[in-house]
């Protein structure tokens, strides 16, 4: 088994998970002031590590899902600051992964003489 297909599968699934997490954060921020607000989360890293150990097919078959989180009462602190911090961290991770993939592809093109 080649390392490259596994690397690309993991990177693709990580981008999917990070994109879904950003959508969940956006949903949470948009609805944070609703009565009985229920946060939505996306946690995929542990499952992705387990799937990676089993190979590309397991990674490709992995399902990333939104999960219902905490339900907040009317006067409970909803910590928008932490949601914004999570959004910032998620965006940085997504950007770093896209940059790494771009550099990897540029290196492959250069090695093949297509630069």
Task: Characterize this entry briefly.
By secondary structure, the protein is mostly helical. It has four helices and two strands; from the N terminus they run αβααβα.
* Total domain count: 1
Sequence of secondary-structure elements:
HEHHEH
The end-to-end distance, rounded to whole angstroms, is 27 Å
Structural class estimated from helices and strands: mainly alpha
Number of helices: 4
Number of strands: 2
Percent in helix:
55-70%
Strand content: 5-15%
| Mean pLDDT level | 91
Largest sheet: 2 strands, antiparallel
What shape does the CA trace take? elongated
Across the major sheet, the strand order is 1-2
Low-confidence stretches: none
Instruction: Tell me the Rg in angstroms.
Output: 18 Å
Account of the 3D structure:
The protein is elongated, with a radius of gyration of 18 Å. Helix 1 packs antiparallel against helix 4 (80-111). A two-stranded antiparallel sheet has the order 1-2. The chain has helices at 3-31, 45-54, 56-61, 80-111, and strands at residues 38-41, 67-71. The mean pLDDT is 91. Helix content is 67%, strand content 8%. By secondary structure, the chain is mainly alpha-helical. The protein has four helices and two strands. The protein has one domain (3-111).
């Amino acid at each position: 088994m080649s390392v490259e297909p596994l690397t690309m599968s993991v990177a693709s699934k990580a981008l999917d998970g990070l994109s879904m997490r950003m959508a969940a954060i956006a949903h949470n921020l948009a609805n944070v002031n609703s009565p009985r607000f229920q946060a939505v989360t996306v946690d995929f890293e542990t499952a992705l590590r387990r799937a990676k150990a089993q190979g590309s097919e397991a990674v490709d078959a992995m399902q990333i899902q939104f999960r219902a989180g905490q339900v907040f009462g009317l006067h409970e602190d909803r910590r928008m600051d932490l949601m914004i911090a999570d959004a910032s961290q998620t965006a940085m991770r997504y950007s770093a992964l896209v940059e790494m993939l771009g550099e990897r592809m540029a290196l492959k093109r250069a090695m093949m003489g297509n630069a």
